Structure formats: structure tokens, C-alpha cells
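Worked example 2:
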Amino acid sequence: MDPRAHASTQQQQSGSLYGFDMSRYVMSEEACQGSAHDVSIRALTHGGIYPLAHAWQVLALPDRAALTVFERHPSLQVQPQRPEGDALVLYVNTLGRLHARAADAPRVSYDENDRADDLGYVPLTAALRAEIGAEQARLQASEEAALAEVHAAVAELHANGDLPRVLEEVIDHVEHVESVCFYLGDRFYALMDRYANLIDDKRSRGFLSLLRDKPFEAWEADEVLSVGALHALFISGRSVRFEEFNGTLLSARRLLDRLAELAASYSAAGNEIEVSPELGLFARAAAIREQTLRGIGKSWLRYRWIYGLNFQKVESILDRNESDEADDVWWQEFEQDYRALVGGPAGFIPAEHAGMAQLAQAAVALDASGVACERGSDAVTSWTEYLIERLVGSAVLATRADYGMSSSLRDISKLISYDEATLLANLHALTPPDFFTCFVSRDLIEGVGTAEAGVIASSVQKRMQFNRWHFIPGNLERPMILKSRHWYYPPLVPDIAVHADMHRAAHNRARVKFSIRSPGPDMSRPPLPIAGRYFRGFYDVRVVRMEGEEFDVSDILRVRRRTLWMESVYAALTQYLMSPRAVRLVTRGFQAGTYQDLIGDGAAQGGLTRPVALTALRGDGSDRLVVHG
């Protein structure tokens, strides 16, 4: 199947615990022909769409040993039928995991509905079998050495009486990440939409939960590893760090290597915190966390690459945080708005972020004074909303996305309370309709038709409101959040995702093939202060391509530039709402089903008025079509 094209999965039955049967990206006549190395790499990378460096981490140690030897012997060929004598069989399951195992051994299965598809057989001589065995022994020795370090760290927690507390914290952290899933050898553990066996659910006890009743001395190696690894990962970067291992093998060696890679990447970017290898496991993790907190105002930027087919989220660092656009791109897009709302002497061009701050303050002032807004689409009811819509449209055009969105809280005044009890009561009373999603598309109606465009827009808006409702408690200290409240940690760094449309029904319905999310404020910016508390991931700018080419890192920086402009909007809004005699301002627009569809590349230029007739839609390319679902 073409990985660049969207495919509907809504009516398909699958035995995959992910949702979509991943073998469809692997199985074909061509995929089973060639050398053992080539066939294995094609399967491992899902036909070439999963970068090998990341895909390699999925392999169990026996399979990794076999592929390493295959690479040394390029003449080894895959045979369609089992040969006489010793042989390995290559097969892939519905989770998309490749195995290279003894041909007479039972196929590895991860669930009663799982299925293994054979790619072919690799005949082995005694010498090849010994070479694979030696490579596996080398890998196992490295793993055991790393596991000894993890075991020592967990044993220290036990000796100090801290292990029960840490276990409860690990279980709690797992519960508040959107998806956690990893392999321990040939077993798959997860807490995700379609499968849960890490913690208790209504049907059975979870892998981690069972450890509450098991003496530490009786813990098996995988149990020690899982608790030690998840605890270290959380210390190093909160629960989102768990997602580094989504869809891959959780091993002690990879844990230590990944922590070392993160520390080195921060140091290489110029971070002033050094992480000594002499520190204990959890102390190293804490030092890495300190590194992540030193990113405010720096020239480098953390971001995450997301592989939607197994939910893996890998952090990387960009050595720059400025987009490749013209320095005056903000002025090109917003000059008319600035002149109309702010003014200024002839020839005056404000600095980008100072000018955006002035424009945001002017929009808030107009709303506070009750001046009706006559700009923007019919989805807009205020000057602040108009500005938000313009910023989302700017991101869509700057990245040539099919659509974009931004979501946040409708009534921020509900968080403006200096009494903790009142604040917590207000926050826990929030429901998804208390949030909004501004949706702006580009030629969406022309591309998919009016009805389908309305379905996409409405489903995205409702889903983002639901997500935002999940995120809002994650900025509070854990004891302040009611145990009955379902929530997730908010996003803290920009991310770029590929093939996110195949497993989750909402993503598939909205055709989210490729996407970028830039939360605000992210970890490179100061948090948003509201009534003495500090919030991150309080708003965002997102863009989506439904098919075609992936976004690249330059697109991340373009979207993030608009998130920095959006920062001025929320700074102006919150500062006003906390001022004396402030008038309550509520975002009443952006109701689900109302949105803006831009036509062409010039539709988001400033100073445009609300369309009044469909006959004007195909004018000079600067009008907009507004659809109500």
C-alpha cells in the first residue's frame, strides 16, 4: 500500500493490538524476494517508511543477532519453502514486529487474535548458526551488565523503604500518558486505546499492579527493569519520556544508552549542565531533567518525531529555533491589521514580537470595550478570535497544510482565583464544551466536498476540545487533582508526526496522515502565569496534511513562529483579565462545525472582511468560504 496516501480503516476488522494490521505495510510478493538482509530490512522498516535507526530498537535480541549476521553475509538468500536442515524463518505479526527464529520453533504470538505472516526461510550452516549464537551471547552479556546497574538502583530504593512509593508513582504516571506500549523480550505490555495489561482494567490485573503484592526478592528481571526504567525515564523528563520506548524493546542497555544520548545532545547544544557518568542511575536522570529546564531563551529547540504506526516519540534537538522565512514575514501578513488596530507614524515598522504584542493588546482592548468585530469568518465573534483565526491561517499557508487548528479554554477567568479551593472547584467542574478549537483549512471543500469537509472540521474541533480538557489539570501538582478526574500530562515541546491516521478512529476520520503540533508555551519559553500559577501547553498551533509529502523540520519552525505570535495573544488576554475592574471575556466563537476554508495562497492576507455572498468566493483569491456543519 502507498504510505503517502490516506486509507480508511473505519470498517476493517483487525487482530492487531494497535488497531490497524501492520503487516499490510510489509507483505507483498516483492517483499519476500532477495537477500536475507534486504528482505529483513524492508520488513523491519515497514517497507522503508520507518527510519532504520528507530526500527532497529524494535527487535528482540535473538532477531537483532540474526540481522547483524545477515548483513555480514549479503549472499544469503530468502527461500519461499523450508529447506532441509537447519534454517531460520522470517515472519512479521500484526503489530509489524519482525522475527528471525528457528524454523521449527512456535511462532511468537502477542495475543489470541495475533497472526504471523511468513516472509521466507534462511538456510543456516553450522558456522552461521554459531556466528548468530556468538552475536546473541554478546548482546545478552551487554544487557546483563546494564541490568545489573538498574537492579542495583531499584534495590537501593527497596533498602531505603522507597520502593512501594515509587511503584505507586510509576503506575500513576503510566495512567496519565495517552499511550504507553513496549516489548519485554517476546511479551508486549501496554496501556492504550485497544489494549491494557500494564495496569489494572475492568477485565484483569495489570503487570505493574501485581507487583504490589509481590516481595521485591521475588521480582523477576523484567519486573525490576520495567519499574526501574519507567522511574528513571519519568525523572529525566516526566511521563512523556515513556513514549521514547513505545513500540520498541525496553531493555536495560537501551535505557542507559538513551539517557546518555539525551545528556550528550543537550551538552552539545550548549547546555550548561553536565551529566557525570559517575552518578547513579536516578541521579543521572535527575541531572538530565535539570538540563531540560535550562532551555528557556536558548537558541536550540527540543522537538519530538512521532511514528504514528507504533506511537514511538523520539526527542531530538534542533540547533536553531528561527524559521527560514523572511525576517519581515509577520509585517507582510499583519501590516493592515496593525495599521487599523494600532496605528503608528507613517513608515514605522515595529519589531516582530513587540508589534504582535501591541496588536494582541489592541484586540483585547476592543473586546473589553464591547466594539463589535467585523473581520474574519462567521466562526469569529470577537477581535481576539479574529486574531487567533488569522494566526492559524498563517500557519496553514506557511506550511502548505490542508488544515490547521488551535485550541484552549473559553473562559480563562475561571482559573483566576487566588483561593486554592475555589480554583480547584472551578477546574474540576470544566467539561469539553468549556474549550474551543479554531479550525482553518485550505481548499478543503474543493478537495473533499462540502459534506466531508464539515465532518472533518467538526470531528477535529470536538476531539481537540476533549484533548484540551484532558490536558488542563496536568499543570497542577499531582495531589491537587482528584483521583476521579481523567487527565493527561500536557504537551511541552513541538512534535512532528507521520502516519498518524491508521490506528485511532478520530485520526483516521480526520485524515491526519502527517501533522505538526506546537504547544505554547513550550519548554523553550517562560510558562504562562495565571493568578500565581504557571501553565505550559495551555494553547497550541497545529497543522495537518491528509496525504502526499511529510512535513520537515523547517515546517516545525514555521508553525512554532506562529505559536510565538499566539503567545502574545494569551499574554495580553491573561494580563488584562487579572487587572483591576477587568471585564470578563469569553471565547464564544469557534463552535463545532463552524470554520474557515481558505481559497488559494492569498486568502489569509490582512484586513479582510467577512464574506457576504457565495458569488464573491472565486474573486481575487482573497475571499473565504465559511461553512456551518
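The radius of gyration is 26 Å. Confidence is low (pLDDT under 50) at residues 603-629.
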